[in-house]
Amino acid sequence: MSPLISAIRLAAIGTAVAGALAAVNSVTRGRIEANEQRPMVKALIDVTGDPRVGGLTGSLDPPLTICLATGVPLYRVRHISGRGYGGAIEMLLGIDAADRVTGVRVIGHHESRGIGDVIETDNSAWIIGFNGLPVSIAPALALTRDGGTIDGVTGATITTRAVVSGVRDALVETQNAPATRCTHVLSG
Predict the structure, then answer these.
(1) pTM, rounded to two decimals
(2) Tens-place pLDDT, residues 118-147
(3) Strand 87-96 relative to strand 101-108: parallel, antiparallel, unpaired?
(4) What span, in angstroms and rounded, lies between the C-alpha atoms of 170 and 91?
(5) Bridge partners (DSSP) listed for residue 84
(6) Which of 20, 48, 154, 172 is most buried when burial is the number of CB atoms within 10 A of its CB?
């Protein structure tokens, strides 16, 4: 067999494989994107307390201002972080139109299992304690051992202090931030 025929066969096989991969990619792209969005959608539902946000489309990367169809803002969702014992603690913070915290959820961390993971709702209800707090409390938000009103968790002081600090800083920024335009509209 001549080298030219071998090269033509190899090129044909390569083209067929590339075409097959492109076809598989186009068929599975939507499912992959939906699976990648699922944790963010759950976190958004958790921080707003509103299951309707599960129907939002488009980019769900914070900051988000979620409004009614009339343009009235319902929720602001921000990405916040704090520095814990194991590194960065990434969180979502929800605030409603009455300037109250609707929820805080951890979306990523490297804290110690069994100690620092008390910031996850699967392991503890501690983080739910932020729900309902007014944005105006921001300057005074601290752990009780730091003169505030939020109880820390024994053995996880650095972790809980990092969450409180991240929430406090975000609430202060929210107080000083101008109103934002709607990024998403709820239907129904």
Answers:
(1) 0.79
(2) 899 988 999 999 999 999 998 889 999 999
(3) antiparallel
(4) 11
(5) 87
(6) 48
